[in-house]
Input
Amino acid sequence: MIVVNYIAFILLAIGGLNWGLIGLFNFNLVTAIFGSERNIGSRIIYILVFIAMLWLIFSIIYSNGYILFRNL
Output
């Protein structure tokens, strides 16, 4: 579960970077890499970021408010 938390955090960081670039510079990094928003590669990235967000929300609920990044 800890590895999945790292992967989810990285995916959310990528999503946050993309939204920051859209807000500041009107530049969509995902569409710049994969072509267009309707491209299957772009859709997969957006879906993975969405799943990562859901995973971290349920992970926080399941672990009583903590995100586990190492065994204690």
Notes: The CA atoms of residues 59 and 65 lie 8 Å apart.
